[in-house]
Write a structure and sequence with these properties.
- The chain has 255 residues and is α+β, with helices and mostly antiparallel strands.
- It has helices spanning 3-22, 28-48, 52-62, 86-89, and strands at residues 65-70, 97-98, 110-114, 120-125, 137-144, 147-153, 159-168, 171-179, 188-196, 199-209, 214-224, 230-239, 242-243, 246-249.
- It has 4 helices and 14 strands.
- The longest helix has 21 residues, at 28-48.
Length: 255
């Protein structure tokens, strides 16, 4: 066991002790279901780990239009992040701005490639090592019925992050994303959406750290305006079945 693993084991023991002392209740069945999701995402990572060149070649042929944005680097996929709420509940996270026209390298943060059906199939992100022609962070989207997978490669061509979005009649119902370079240290960010009369009504969010046997849970009731934009989230973190009653009001955002 190396020093890094020793440190992680010490952190795990410390976290488990804190959980025990704080009387926080962890649903073992729910935790195990999250572990199953992580295992699935890790298997997807393993399937595509050596397929960067194949994805580059196949997706390049399918792209017919491009879009560019500035900003949004702290949010998965920037402007086109699948989450409906992450940029609303986390401070200082922005989607970025969609640019009106093609721009030169250095003036954009993301390049998005769309196929003939207007589906987003490739995301190129600029980082400190990127040149005009190489070393982008790249994400490729793979569509299969109501499932959209996202496999993310860093500027060295390594895949460490996988996401999976599940849709029902065009509406997102699950958003799963794991930093899963190795299964032992993989985590999970998970959102689940609920609808009433075809309108978004509730969101549940989980941050899962299986190595230390914990997860954080948030739950929000959703209020929408006449344009189906989120104007209010009511709720917060859930502890032992009790939900906070914070009110996040976004009405001024859309004025």
């Amino acid at each position: 066991m190396d020093d890094f693993e020793c440190m992680l084991n010490e952190l795990q023991q410390s976290a488990m002790k804190q959980i025990k002392n704080s009387n926080i209740q962890i649903d073992k069945d729910k935790l195990n279901s999250f572990k199953d999701i992580i295992s699935e995402l890790v298997s997807i990572r393993n399937e595509y780990a050596s397929k960067l060149s194949q994805l580059q070649n196949s997706k390049e042929k399918e792209i017919v239009t491009f879009e560019y944005t500035k900003g949004g680097e702290t949010l998965h996929r920037g402007y086109y992040c699948p989450s409906l709420v992450l940029d609303l509940i986390v401070g200082n996270i922005k989607r970025g701005k969609l640019l009106k026209r093609k721009t030169v390298f250095g003036n954009y943060s993301y390049e998005y490639g769309f196929d003939a059906d207007n589906r987003l199939i490739r995301v190129k992100g600029v980082n400190e090592f990127t040149t005009p022609v190489s070393r982008f962070d790249e994400e490729y989207l793979i569509y299969s019925e109501d499932i959209v997978l996202g496999v993310e490669f860093d500027n060295m061509g390594h895949i460490d992050v996988v996401s999976k979005c599940t849709y029902d009649n065009g509406e997102i119902v699950k958003y799963e994303r794991s930093v899963c370079g190795t299964q032992d240290y993989a985590d999970l960010y998970y959102e689940e959406y609920f609808y009433e009369n075809n309108m978004l009504s509730e969101v549940r969010i989980f941050d899962v750290t299986p190595r230390i046997e914990i997860y954080e849970e948030q739950k929000y009731k959703v209020e929408l305006d006449e344009d189906s934009k989120i104007v209010k989230l009511i709720g917060g973190f859930m502890t032992n079945g009790v939900v906070e009653k914070d009110v996040l009001d976004f009405k001024s955002t859309y004025k």
